[in-house]
Amino acid sequence: MVAKKTGTAEKSGPVPQARAGAEALAVRPGEDPWTEAEAEEARAGLRADAERIRTEIDASGQALAGLMRDSGGGAGDDEADTGTKNITREHELSLAANAREMLRQTEQALVRLDEGTYGTCENCGNPIGKARLQAFPRATLCVDCKQKQERRG
Length: 153
Hints:
GO terms for molecular function: DNA binding; zinc ion binding. This protein is an all-alpha fold.
């Protein structure tokens, strides 16, 4: 018997994300393939990093709001006080920008894990290396391409 469509969608939970198996992840010649446990460990580490970074971004946002509120008047501040407040605010803005970029990289690494492209160099398409990814899970370039990028500038 075939179920008839009624035109009303049944509510179900969120659509699960597609996950590529660990065997689909690239490795360099001579490296052992990724195991499901290793891939899940990388995924869990990246999720924990993302949560930690989100917390840092929230704290930074609150600190910035306080700095902006405190810098409003400036009455009675001498030039050194004003300069210190400006430097502190610029430093906090820089930290927040760095944290947002790190969060973006972390979220992209999670997407690559789910798509099965984790471990493939975005520049040349060669494997990045399992050991490199375990040390730096957000890596998107193999060692050779990263060295070339750093030499260029």
